[in-house]
Amino acid sequence: MQVMRAMRLRWTGAAVGVAVMVGVLIPGMPLIADERVETAYSRELDAKLEQAGENRAELEKALDEVPKAQRKGMHFLIAYMPDSDARSLNAAYLLNNVAWAYKARENFTWAKQVPEDVFFNDVLPYASLNERRDDWRQDFYKRFSKYVKDAKTQEEALMAVNRNILKELKVEYNTKRKKPDQSPYESMEQGMASCSGLSILLNNAFRSVGIPSRVAGIPAWTTKRGNHNWVEVWTPVDKAWHFTEYYPDAKGLDHGWLLADAAQANPKSFYHSIYASSWKSTGLHFPMVWNMKNKEVPAVNVTERYVALGGENAVGENDCELRIHRMVGGKRVAIPVVVLQGDLKIAEGVSPKPSDDMNRFYTVVVRKGQIYQLMWKDEVSGAMQRQTVTTPKDKTWLEVKLGG
Q1: Helix, strand or coil, per DSSP, at residue 267
Q2: Taking residues 55-70, what's their average pLDDT?
Q3: Is residue 93 a contact partner of residue 135, using CB atoms and an 8 Å limit?
Q4: Which of 64, 123, 59 is nearest to 85 (CA)?
Q5: CATH topology assigned to domain 109-313
Q6: pLDDT computed for residue 330 by the predictor
Q7: Where would you find the membrane-spanning parts of this chain (predicted)?
Q8: Where are the domains of the chain?
């Protein structure tokens, strides 16, 4: 007799026992009492099924057909998937992704050492950010397992993947790529990608062979214009996260050109913080500069780790003075001034008035070699004015004349 799956309900052991005793098959009741895995995220799973709308049957099918050993992982994957995925992904896609993720966990010694919560959050997911949902898992397993088959440690395995990904996928960095958030096969079809597209490729390559991985990035540098994304990997030896890139540094993990700039990130600023992606909800979202309205990708703020990692590259707060004043018609004008860095207000005050000593300025202590914005109101038009300045790397002060 077929059990109807129109509803999924939680059953206590007593309820199941009564149902079995009277020979009743209730819609949504599992054949085996332990089929429904009670977890810390059962409530999120139920909510996600509601969000799925007309696609709920596909998610139910994935939950029903997943092997028992993989069931808890499937529950986690669906519980925290973006709502847009819940309404669109089919069961075959989800079952294939989970099956090959568990295959890597079974076949590689380092993958077996990964704690379950890290495996669920940073190996099992089928997506990195908001890219198109390609069915890459099986293909990437076959592509990259040959490079790690002789690796004895995870570090050997991740280095093998990192060194061979360009040769295997034949994708290079190129600003002529069609879009920043390309999926794996979109990048492979073009042979080019942005730093975000390259990071998605590397992230998937690591995950395909059971290496915990996530995309990290900063929406805006404090030291220059622009943003950047890269990849972090979790290692079982120290149970910690380390960074690398599609083009790896010869010195290995936690080395590369980006460290000097990352060490000067500002953890108090939304735009100047460094984030690492997460599958499970965190209360924060990963800022995707190509679509800042999209808040579906959870994230953790990891800025402090990069500031500490930068060591001598991390610049103190008392390194440079902005000496600000406003001149109109050869005379100083006292006006309110706001000093910003991205979305963060650094300071506000008033520029010197005509009767002040010429050696007096409105002074703000900031960091060397970083970008700041000054904002004030024009005396005549009343319009707000904004001026961008970059502090010097080799001086302890910078005189700034508002408006010129």
Answers
A1: coil
A2: 97
A3: yes
A4: 59
A5: C8orf32 fold (3.10.620)
A6: 87
A7: 12-33
A8: 109-313, 320-402
Strands annotated E in 342-383: 344-350, 362-366, 371-377
Amino acid at 34: D
Please, which residues have CB within 8 angstroms of residue 17's CB and are 6 or more apart in sequence?
33
Reference 363, options 376, 374, 384, 349; nearest CA is 349
pLDDT at 164: 97
84: tokens are 């847009």
Chain centroid to Cα 249, Å, comes to 21
For residue 66, give both structure tokens.
Answer: 């997943």
Indicate the SS3 state at residue 219: coil
User: What is the C-alpha separation between 240 and 253, in angstroms, rounded?
Assistant: 12
% of the chain exceeding 70 in pLDDT: 89
Q: What is the mean pLDDT of residues 120-127?
A: 98
The type of residue at 66 is V
Residues 6+ apart with CB under 8 A from 234: 114, 118, 122, 211, 212, 213, 240, 241, 242
Q: Which pair of tokens denotes residue 319?
A: 């390194």
> Residue 131 corresponds to which tokens in the numbers above?
């890219």
Q: Are strands 275-277 and 213-218 parallel, antiparallel or unpaired?
A: antiparallel
Q: In angstroms, rounded to a whole number, what is the distance separating the alpha carbons of residues 218 and 228?
A: 6
Token code pair at residue 52? 């799925």
| Whether pLDDT at 375 is above 80 | yes
Q: Tell me which residue of 223, 232, 215, 220 sits closest to 273, measured CA to CA.
A: 220
184 phi/psi in degrees, rounded to 5: -50, -50
pLDDT mean over 134-146 = 98
63 vs 94: CA distance, rounded Å: 9
User: Which of 27, 251, 117 minimizes the C-alpha distance to 242?
Assistant: 251
| 3-state SS assignment for residue 40 | coil
Tell me, what DSSP letter sits at residue 342? Answer: T
The pLDDT score that the predictor gives to residue 404 is 78
Reported as type and span, the H/E element at residue 18 is helix 13-21
Q: Are 55 and 87 in contact (CB under 8 A)?
A: yes
Domain 320-402: assigned CATH number = 2.60.40.10
d(CA 86, CA 89): 6
Question: Nearest 10 degrees: CA dihedral of 156, 160, 161, 167?
Answer: 180
Report the alpha-carbon distance of residue 261 to residue 133 in Å, rounded.
32
Structure-model confidence comparison of residues 66 and 317, the more confident one: 66
Residues 6+ apart with CB under 8 A from 14: none
